[in-house]
Amino acid sequence: MAVLSLKLRMRPPVLEVANLNARYGRAQILHDVSILLGRNEVVALLGRNGAGKTTTMKSIMGMLRQVDGRISYENQDILGKPSYMICRAGIGYVPEERRIFRDLTVEENLEVGRRAKRENAPEWTLERLFDLFPNLRERRSNLGKHLSGGEQQMLTIARTLMGNPAVVLLDEPSEGIAPVIVEQMGFVIAELKRQGLSVLISEQNLHFARLVSDRAYIIEKGQVRYDGSFDDLDQHPEISRKYLAV
Amino acid sequence: MGFYFAQLLTGLANASSLFLIASGLSIIFGVTRIVNFAHGSLYMVGAYLAYTLVSAMDLGAFGFWLGVLVAAAIVGLIGLLIEMTILRRIYHAPELFQLVATFGVLLIFQDATLAIWGAQDLLGPRAPGLDGALRIMGEPIPEYDLALIAIGPLVLLGIWLLFRKTRWGVLVRAATQDREMVAALGVNQAWLFSATFVLGAFLAGLGGALQIPRETVSLQMDLSVIGEAFVIVVIGGMGSVTGAYVAAVLISVLNAFAILIFPQVSIVLPFIVMAIVLTLRPHGLFGAAGSEHGAPTEPEQPLRLMGEKGMMILFAAMAVFALSPVIVGDFTTVLLVDVMVATLFAVSLHFMMGIGGMVSFGHAAYFGIGAYAAAMMVKQLGIGMLPTIFLAPAVAGAGALFFGWFCVRLSGVYLAMLTLAAAQILWGITFQWQQFTGGDDGIVGVWPAGWASSDKVYFYLAFVCCIGGIWFLRRAAHSPFGYTLRGIRDSRTRAEAIGVDSRFHQWMGFTLAGAVAGLAGTIFAFSKGSVFPDSLGIAQSIDGLIMVLLGGIHALAGPILGAGVFVMIEDWVTRLAYWRVIFGIIILVVVLLAPDGIAGGINRLFARIRAVRKGGTA
Lengths: 246, 618
Known about the structure:
Chain B: Pfam families: BPD_transp_2. The structure holds two protein chains of two kinds. By secondary structure, chain A is an alpha/beta fold. Chain A has one domain (39-65, 82-243): P-loop containing nucleotide triphosphate hydrolases (Rossmann fold, 3-Layer(aba) Sandwich). Chain A has helices spanning 2-10, 53-60, 83-89, 106-113, 126-132, 134-138, 149-161, 179-194, 206-212, 230-235, 237-243; strands spanning 15-24, 27-37, 42-46, 67-73, 76-77, 91-94, 167-171, 198-203, 215-220, 223-228. In chain A, the strands form two sheets. A six-stranded mixed sheet of chain A has the order 6-7-8-3-9-10, with helices on both faces. Chain A has a four-stranded antiparallel sheet with strand order 2-1-4-5, with helices on one face. Chain A is globular. Chain B has two domains: 2-219, no CATH class; 308-601, Orthogonal Bundle (ABC transporter involved in vitamin B12 uptake, BtuC), CATH 1.10.3470.10. In chain B, 73% of the residues lie in helices and 2% in strands. Chain B has helices at residues 2-32, 39-57, 60-85, 95-117, 143-165, 167-177, 179-184, 189-211, 221-236, 241-261, 269-280, 308-327, 330-355, 364-379, 385-407, 412-432, 434-437, 455-477, 480-490, 492-497, 502-528, 538-551, 558-573, 579-593, 597-617; strands spanning 133-136, 139-142, 443-444, 530-531. In chain B, strand 1 and strand 2 form a beta hairpin. The chains are: A alpha/beta, B mainly alpha. The A-B interface holds A 24-25, 61, 63, 82-84, 87-88, 93, 95, 99, 101-104, 108-109, 111-115, 159-160, 163 and B 167, 170-171, 173-174, 177-178, 180-189, 288, 291, 293, 297-299.
């Protein structure tokens, strides 16, 4: 663990979350959450339902109001900024519930996500995305609500990529989709890393997370309980037994 | 045959102008979720501006159409100003705040229009080149109507292209479905909302400007059109422009034929169509259930039973109030009866909204039924005052039972719109049905029985009724029935999952609130000695909302405080010239500065004082 943190310190992280607290009304959801995402790294945020994974991501994205602590992206403070500015800065968010625009076609959904090219990130075009998600090409004129669950999951990722992000926050990409699509999801995440993106994924599925990510945080009841490599985690099975549903 | 065809064309021409205003309303609602009451004002201002521009330019056909377009463009700019100064601050506020704020804007517009163009109705110029009539199948059809029939679908086509073929249009449609997600994808909502509001305002202005050759331009245009526009939007499905056109055609054409059979039907017809459509399709013909994302999620604070100290303060206040007629003059005693009537009305509305979770934009309907029922019982049926005080609220309750059956099928803003439509229809009936309701002249000479005719005695009678009504609703709020209602308010699905029939409970809550509002109306009728259609008008409904809002929705004592303050302010302000402007500004200040009402404001003040004290000792 110590070695890893040291390595990160030498290479400045692209996204840094420090001492993050988040509230809904009077209930505090996150307590002093600190997370680093290195450049071109895939990091998993593991935890059970309700542990605070989605809240962490929404906080980063500026979608929640009662948040304090520090969130910086490329050494710029982004906490308190509206979410459209955070997106424009280069952070893309793929929500857990997919939230595609049901009455828009596949192409129109992608159009909503389209943003100008960015210097520090790969550029995505419709054609490139259709190569990555061949199903979407066939269904480009279909309405969002007529897609299958797996296709909707692909569309929501593709829509975020249309913004040419440098960092992608991927909220539970393997949830509620068929195993064959999960496999495809793993391939997509590997491709994002190959393209030079940094990815933070939230997962309940330890097996899937291990396949696609470089290291992991475990979050429980709004607190970070583990920070380290999967190998270390394997050495201490009691940790995953305690905090994850395995 | 020719005659019927002519009726069809008249209906289609009416549909076009209705479509213009309704489409703007629908687009604005779809994206910003704001129910824009001031939309009728934009329509009215469009007509006045076009009147001035076209008359001033006098350039023939070119001048006419240029004047119409410039008027619409100016209205668009006015819309931008409203959006940037007021609406932008309240996008996250509950519907109630938004509605009341736009009503404040409406008041300001009414006086501004009065100040600029004066009170007399203006007869607009004919459209040059289109001022004749064409004979179609032997019937004369105004050429201008034919032009309007073409303009409606053309505008629809224009909006359709704008929404389908431009990036802006795609963003607007996406925002209609999930605006929070659109923001997370990098779209600046502020800009999108402003542009949407400008488009909606432009369409309203255009609708008004195009009316000048057909209709006299008057200060009543704003409220007379808004009710019908709301109905069109709800029937078509909120946010759907195609739906707005279909609904406008449906209503207008049905109306053109229905008046041949039964001339009085025109005011009731839209409601009947709306009731049928909403019963079959709860989100309108082309509407879909809106996304839940981005809705206010703040959980409601639990209501607490009053402590011993609070009870003592309450009883002391009541005692002071009860003794006041002995000290103050008759004039003030009458004013105090007004305060009590307003309080009871506000408490009944608060029960419906705060406890029942049903926002009503038309609560005056039941106040008005109570008032009219009382007047008719006394004047036409010769029933005595005391039985009337029990019977009239029961009639109001029956009215609420009837309309409530439709309303509770919906939720949120659809429910609110349906309540508004119900009130508007009832208003139309009382206005139209002269032989029973006296129409505009109202019913006069509704005085209390001889023994209660002195102001002081009537004060105590009203006092007993109001305290009784308030106590009754408080009891209901803290009964198992009240707890169930609040459970439904907080989570309908969870309440239903534990076996609660949510519709039935809300229906009963609606009826209860309506009956108590009817009691307020009954007391009102006897204290004024007369009733007029105003008592079920939009303004009366909004007054109730303002009282609830002034007091703060989260406090049971809120409506009592709010009603008192409201009547005092109204009594003072309405003596001034241009009182609407002042009142409108007061409303806007409250909405923008103290969104949690007077009660909330006082609470915050105390919290701050406590915090300062704590800081001082530490």
